[in-house]
Structures are given as C-alpha cells and as structure tokens.
Amino acid sequence: MSAVDAQQAIIQVHHEEWARVVAALTRRFGDLDIAEEAAAEAFAIAVERWPADGVPPNPGAWLTTTANRKAIDRIRRESKRDDKHKEAQIVYDDDPPEPLGAIDDDRLRLIFTCCHPALSLETRVALTLRMVGGLTMPEIARAFLVQESAMGQRITRAKAKIKAARIPYRVPSAEDLPTRVSGVLSVLFLVFNEGYLATGPDTDPVRHELTAEAIRLTRLIRALMPEDGEVAGLLALMLLTEARRTARVSASGELVPLDEQDRGAWDAALIAEGHQLVRERLAAGVPPGRYQILAAINAVHTSVRDIRDTDWSQIVALYDQLIRIDPSPIVALNRAIAVAELDGPEVSLAAVDRLNDKLAGYHAYHATRADLLRRLCRSEEARAAYDKAIELAGNTAETAHLTRRRDQLR
Question: Where is region (Disordered) located (predicted)?
Fold first, then answer.
C-alpha cells in the first residue's frame, strides 16, 4: 500500500471510528481525558504503522485495542505516581458494564455526557465536536472564532469539570429526558451545521461524516422520545437539508445555491421521510417549536420541482411564526431573503440593512446584501459587499461561489 493510500484510509477511518473508539474507552475507564488521549495515540500509531503494515481487516477493533492498551499504560503510570489503586483496578475489569438508559449506545451516552447542563452551551458544542465529531482543535477554534490555545483550555476545563462533578456517563432516565433533550438538540443542530457547511478553510466544504452522525444520534433520541415534536422537527429538518447535499457543491468545488441546484439530484427517499415527519407534526395539532417550523420551511422548498413554483408567501408566513418564538437577527435575515421573492429586492434590502449593527461580522449578511445590490444593478456597492463576504467566509465552496458572483459584475 502506498503512503498516499494509507493516508486516505486513515482519514476515512478517523471519520468513521473516532467517536466509537472514544465512547468505548469512556465507557470502560469513565474518564473523557483518558479516552481522548488514548484514542489520539492510537490514531498516531496507525499513521506510523499502516503505510508499512497495511490497513488491518477491522480498523475500528485495531484502534480500540491499541487505545485500550495506551489507556491502561497511563492509568498504571498515574497509579504508581499518585497511588490511585482504585483507578488502577479498572484495567483488570473486563466484564462489560450493564447497559444504561433506554438505548444501549456508547455514542449516545457520550453525547449526553458532553451536553450536560452543568456546562455552558458553547462548551457543550465544542466538547461534542471534539469527542463525538473528532474535529481538530484548530477546526473547533475557527468555528468559535477564538484562539486555538483558548479553545484547548476550554475543553480541558470541561473534561475536568465532568470528572470532578462526577457527571454520569449514561442516557438520562425517562423522567429526566424532557429537561435534558433540548440542550442536546441544540448541540446536534450545531454539529449538523458544521458538517453541512464546514467552517474550516482546509476541510471538505461538506463534511458528510458529521451530518450523518448528527442524523444518526437524532434518530436514536427520537426512538427515546417518539412523541416529542421538536425531536421529530429537528430530524425532519436534517433529512430535508441532507437530501440536497449532493447538489450543493459543483464538480469544480463551488457552492450551488438553492435556485441553481439540480433538483433531480436530490435524495427522494430522504425528502419523503422528512415530509412525512412534518405532516405528522401538523396532524398532532400542537403549537410547533423552532425546529418544526424550520422543517416546515424546508418542506415547502423541497415540495416543488421548479424554483419558480415555490410558495414564497407560505415561507414568509412561516418565518413570521418563527420570529415570534426566535426573534434572532439570523431569522430576520432569512425572512428578508424570502421577502425579496415576494416584494422585490429593494424592500428586502431595507430590511437587511436594519440588521447591520447585529450582523456586521457575519459573512451571510454581506453575501445577502451583495446579491440584493446585484439585482438592483448597484454593481460597485455589490462588489464591496461581495469582498466583505469573501473576507469573512471560511468555507472553500462558498468562497468560490461568492468570488464568481463578484467577478461577474460589470
């Protein structure tokens, strides 16, 4: 096997197996820090050995075994230094623990641990991206617009807090789930978004392993809480968004906006499943939450085969409903984009410009302004807006799209 082939195999295995390895080690040793360090060491050994020895038949098992040995070595060192006899006894306990929670899934337990309410929301997202998603520290730091060292310290403090507070590694009991699940959904949505439109300039523009993992974990939570409308709404939103994945980036690596996508390339099965979930929630007759409304908006977008048949009045009405429960500037920006299709770009631009104080550092705000100014034939202003959007955008596919649009201006 060539070094290039081995490197590609390691990247693929890292995408598929990182969360499994970390979760298995966390379950056995009860320590996120040990689990992460041992998993990282196992992958580092793979980088050294696999180019010469070849990829093992079962890479996940190889990595888990190697990581277990590294974890045991660390615990033995610490037990000798600190006399942690009780911790050292773990290495001799090969009996699997009893399943905890309604679903026996190590990664689901891991995400509830990472998303514990004792941690701040930003810390929960960062810890989940690292421990479950396997993102590197530079990638996570970029997502939060902070220095890598600061993000490393934040994650280290979070792991220490989980250990000191003895936060349990388990799926919450049925009576605790309703209060815990909303925080998990927020984290899963942010993880999905990182995969849907990756923030790192040196990563793939769409990270399917992250979107797939977010969907998989959301399915598991839905199995736990089948009557929860927001769980169903988030799953529907993810499915309807994921259905468009293959049409979102061109062969040349450029982002393809919704109005230019080949709708025949959308995943019909995912769209049908997402629409079914939206219909079920409508039939329930319960006032919808944020994720259910976002799913309904996506259902309108994906219900027609031609962009010209889109029911923009319905989309604006849904955004009006959403903004009452989530009056954020991002929702207002997306509503303004829909308004442009109903009332024209001039009305929309006035609404967008009112958001300048809150969204001046957000690339999508400037990209939206640029597109509206282009439609109004205000080319010089549009060029300046495109320049600002390109400066702020981190996704390579999005940058390519914005650059082409800017360069098309006269």
Answer: 77-96
